Amino acid sequence: MRKTRDTVTFALQPVDKPIVTCRPGQFIMLYAFGGGEVPVSVSGIGSATLAQTVRAVGAATNALCAAEPGHVVGVRGPYGTDWGLHAAAGRDVVVVAGGIGLAPLRPVLLAALAQREWFGRIVLLAGARSPADLIFASELTLWRRRGVDVQATIDQPVREWNGHVGFVSQLIGRADFNPSRATAFVCGPEVMMRLSAKALMSRGMAPHDIRLSLERNMPCGIGLCGHCQFGPLLLCRDGLSSVTHEPSWPAGNHRYLRRVFATSARRGAPCASWSRMARRASAQ
Ligand SMILES: Cc1cc2nc3c(=O)[nH]c(=O)nc-3n(C[C@H](O)[C@H](O)[C@H](O)COP(=O)(O)OP(=O)(O)OC[C@H]3O[C@@H](n4cnc5c(N)ncnc54)[C@H](O)[C@@H]3O)c2cc1C
Ligand code: FES
Predict the structure, then answer these.
(1) How far is the CA of 159 from the centre of ligand 1 (A)?
(2) Residue from 29, 40, 76, 218 to probe ligand 2 pocket by mutation (most atoms less than 8 Å from CB)
(3) What is the pTM (predicted TM-score) of this model?
(4) Domain spanning 2-80+267-280: which CATH class is it, in words?
(5) In this structure, are strands 36-45 and 50-55 parallel, antiparallel, or unpaired?
(6) Among all ligands shown, which has an atom nearest to the Cα of 135?
(7) Could you report the per-residue pLDDT of 241-274, keeping only the tens digit for each?
């Protein structure tokens, strides 16, 4: 199913063994035959299907997005750790998504809605470059009807848009949640996550209540190749979500990063993937 001009959501069904259950936040290695293999987060978890939402940016993702219904793709996984939504029970849930970042966060929202009584307010702040780039746009209305406080924003004003204009991090200041008893789940481009973490902390949220999903190139996904080594951690193996530490994140300082991620690991919510910065940092 095409979601935007360059983004497609697939419902994957097994051709042999049943699909292994995934947890929100985990990722799958998807192989487009002849196109290559890439990590893609799970965007929906059904009893017999897995949904994955892919933005076409290069050879493998273009091949995946061009696949027609019935096409066979290779699947490995799931890998990585989950968002740890259960730890937010009894608290407000604040989901901050930039662009394709809403895909890995969709299972968080669906799981929170499935156990609605466990949580306080549920707030979704979603940003996109333009209305046409807003993924799951039709679901935003459904989630709003189910009691989610949904705020969407686009980067630049356009005639057909009456909503917020500006970066998604700018919505955080006036979002309706209790910072002292909220857990935030953030995914999007690195700069968006940094600004969002800063804005959440300006509202008074504790750093360890802010979970981030960070990305990097992951060739194997199973802790073998070492490409995703990050201080003492292998990010593909140790997880997808992380806990930020202070507003200056991400800083290009290796010792600092080791401290951030070692802290995350000790908290039992390790980790992350994230490439260019880690590589730059370890080169310093
Ligand atoms: C854990 C994890 C989960 C991910 N989940 C999703 C998802 O749910 N949906 C989705 O569409 N993508 C997701 N990605 C990103 C996806 O894996 C990349 O877009 C893909 O690897 C690009 O491969 P390609 O061969 O199509 O393009 P390439 O030829 O490898 O790259 C094409 C262009 O895209 C850029 N690019 C490559 N990888 C990334 C990246 N990770 N982030 C930003 N730019 C990149 C390159 O710099 C290049 O300019 C995830 C990545 C990781 C590590
Ligand atoms: S991607 Fe190979 S070790 Fe993590």
Answers:
(1) 31
(2) 218
(3) 0.85
(4) mainly beta
(5) antiparallel
(6) 1
(7) 544 443 344 433 333 333 443 334 333 332 233 3
